[in-house]
Amino acid sequence: MKKIVLLTIGTLLTALAIHAQDLKSKDVPAVVKSALQKKYPEAKRVSWEKEKGNYEGNWGGKSGEDHSVQFTPSGEFLEMVNAIPVSELPKPVSVYIREHYKGAKITEAGRVTDAQGKISYEAEVHGKDIIFDENGNFVKAE
User: What pTM, to 2 d.p., does this model score?
Assistant: First the structure.
C-alpha cells in the first residue's frame, strides 16, 4: 500500500513538472525574450515558464500574471491571455460550469487572443482550464 501511494505521488509530481516548468530569464532563448519585448514593450518584471515545449511570459497585476503570452522556441507568437473578472465571461460559460461542475467556483478567468486574432475564453475550475469559444460555447478542458 505504501509503495502504491508513493508511486502515485511521484507520478503526480512528475506530471505537474511536465505541465509547466518555472524558468529563470537566462534560460529563455534570446529570440523569445526579444519577440516579447518587441510585441509588448510595456512588459516589465516578466516571469517565465516552459509549457508543452513553448515559452510563457507572465507579467502585471498583484499576482504577476495579469498578462500571459506564449511563444514557440523560435520566437513565434502563439497567444495572449489577459486576466478578466469572472463577471466578464460570456453568460453561457457560467451556465456550463454550473451544469458540469456542480458547486464549483471559477477561480480565474481569461480572454485569449491567438496569433490570428481569434478570441476565446478560459475559466479555471478545480485547477483545470476550461476553454470556451468567443460566444461562450464549451471547446475543451485542459
Answer: 0.80
